[in-house]
Write a structure and sequence with these properties.
With 438 residues, this protein is an all-alpha fold. The chain contains 21 helices and no strands. It has one domain.
Length: 438
Amino acid sequence: MAWYETLTLIFGAVLALLGIGMPVAFALAAVTLGGIYLTQGWGGPFQSYVLSVKSSLSVFSLLPVPLFVLMGEILWHSKIAGRALKSLDIAMGRLPGRLSLLTIASGTLFSTLSGSTMANTALLGRLLVPELMQRKYSGAMSMGPIMASGALSMLIPPSALAVIFASVAKISIGKLLIALILPGIMLAVLYAVFVIGVAIKFPALAPSYQVERATLGVKLKGLFANVLPLTLVIILVIGVIFAGIATPTEAAAVGALASFCLAAAYGGLSVRAVWNSLIDTVRISVMMLTILASAIAFSQLLAFTGASRGLLNFVVAGDQSPMMFVILTMLLLLVLGMFLEQIAIMMVTLPILMPIIAALHLDPIWFAVLMLINLEIALMTPPFGMLLFVMRSVTPPSITMTAIWRSVIPYMLINLLVIGLIMLIPAIATYLPKLAFG
């Protein structure tokens, strides 16, 4: 069987299983086990599969995943994040597009606490949609910012998804976390600039309303008391990696410890909060690591059958330039993002893409940043982007799906703009990693 036939059969089987609703970890495992049986038979090959799964999870570099998740969970369950949202609300005052800016600010802040774009979007939707609808904000100024800022959780560090990405792609976790800082901040700033511009130019889309006046002292007190400590925890985690003081694993441990100390200082470290945080951490971590184990074994099947090597040789021998390959890859990821969750896309595509990126002599950190931003766009792409359906679940029945689609288009274009800028100016993604790691 030719390599392209094998590749089509393998990916077709995975997509078919995902299409009938099978979880991605089980779909990858089922195809891997079936491929092992068909190509190698019973007995020893299955024992090798089990040992491969065990060895893929028994690596020190994956330890930041549960620690980052735990850090976010304890801050959620201790109510510190809720206090931060209230303080941001007061600090916004009477800025144009006030509620939209609050959405972006809180979404950006909460993105540092959540490893799931869908969970982040659902939370922001439940908290903010009722007031946004009551104040008659348009879709582009209400639902759009919620989905766009909710999706930032896969970019802004500390990101458990970035750790998973780097582990599967076999690139430096620390470099990728640092590389995502500037693009993540750039996206949040451009979202805010767009909102302010629209609110000034078309005030009917974000009607102003009377808010309780707060003195500068009250605003600063709230920010210093509730937002600054939370921000310092994130800066601490990223700062020790950037300064070379700690590895990502050590930084994650420091962040988790700092979160517990902060929760205790605010009186939120109850037995119930700790228990719920631990349970949610175990649940999320098991899900991520199960997918990871299945994906690594799946990539080994691709290598054994010669499918990945055949595709690699085909691409390298082709006439297209490396940049054209990157552009075509971005388009493919947009399509996949309409149907699959971001972890699933990573697991299915990275075993194929990363060897090609190496063969084309492209910077893997630069490509990883492009791919993560692209996956954020894909999650919002009509008609099947997953965040669109999350948004549908938290909006009133009177809001049509078409309205949700229209609301997110400006933010998708902003993401595409940032991808284009990073392609033209790679230093946006590579400067900080080079500064930190040389």
